[in-house]
Specification:
293 residues, alpha/beta, TIM Barrel, eight-stranded parallel β-sheet, 8 strands, 13% strand
């Protein structure tokens, strides 16, 4: 969830203990290797409470992955995920994310370089099921299965389908599971509520799910699936936790766009609460009680 998992988002999840592990937003490697200090800053919100963290990289350069991973290992990271999934036209036009799904030579060189240079890390990938056609998945799986990956996270849509409504998405995951004998398939896409988790697991026999946008709408989803309950005031709990975090460290956590993005996801873009929030000045917004007005 590139651009969404801000320090405020991470800190709120930590305070409420809503996850056991993280996969970071992708770190783009384009023309140079990031400085160790830059990498440390990017991953700090995830690792500060010792949660297991997988760092996601997006690149088309096999030459940049080794020095970057070396720095990440020195920062305590042992799990790396390569993003071949981002369907953004901007990313794809720059030879990144899902834009590599028809460039087998580049994908092969990236994965081969990592496997050759690092024998002890856990390597995984995140993919779409093709660029234009789901049937592309067969050749893709043939390539990926050579690398004994820790898991393959599969968003069932193709890149060209973006986030369009797609029927039979969980059946697509089922086919991926059948193709990927011996490799764990983690399902992604349209995981909004507990019923969706149950359905995709039942239909596809996947080995787990990757909850992304569903957590923006309901941050408690994972814990509720695990059997915990938070009552009817859970969104109030989440918003008030965010506010307390921001008030206690305004410099670190108060970012109006970040807070508004959280409120939009929680309440809905057309909700009365979000429309009120957009009109408030910064001081009022920081202290505004959405639940007793």
């Amino acid at each position: 969830m590139h651009g969404v998992m801000t320090p405020l988002f991470c800190e709120t999840f930590h305070k409420l203990d809503l996850v056991d592990s993280w996969i970071t937003p992708f770190i783009r490697l384009s023309t140079h290797t990031p400085k160790k200090s830059s990498l440390a800053k990017k991953i700090y919100p995830f690792i500060k409470y010792n949660k297991k963290t997988t760092v996601q990289l997006l690149t088309s350069s096999d030459e940049l992955v080794t020095p970057t991973i070396e720095k990440l290992i020195s920062l305590g990271i042992n799990d790396i995920n390569i993003n071949f999934a981002c369907p953004s036209k901007t990313v794809m036009n720059k030879n990144g994310g899902a834009g590599l799904l028809n460039q087998f030579g580049i994908m092969n060189s990236i994965l081969q370089r990592i496997k050759n240079d690092f024998s002890d890390i856990n390597l995984s990938i995140k993919i779409r099921t093709g660029i234009n056609n789901f049937n592309e998945i067969e050749n893709l799986m043939t390539l990926f299965l050579k690398y004994n990956l820790d898991f393959i996270a599969v968003h069932f849509r193709t890149a060209s389908e973006m986030y369009d409504k797609v029927y039979g998405g969980f059946e697509r995951i089922k086919k991926c599971v059948k193709l990927a004998t011996g490799t764990n398939i983690i399902a992604s896409g349209d995981i909004w509520e507990i019923a969706d988790i149950d359905k995709v697991c039942e239909v596809s026999k996947c080995h787990g799910v990757m909850v992304a946008r569903g957590l923006l709408k309901n941050p408690f989803l994972i814990r509720e699936y695990q059997g915990l309950t938070f009552g009817e005031n859970k969104i109030q709990l989440y918003v008030e936790t965010m506010q307390n975090i921001m008030k206690n460290d305004v410099k670190q956590y108060w970012k109006r766009p970040s807070y508004l993005a959280n409120l939009k996801n929680l309440f809905g873009e057309s909700s009365e609460e979000f429309n009120i929030a957009k009109r408030l000045d910064e001081k009022t917004l920081l202290n505004y009680n959405f639940f007793n007005n």
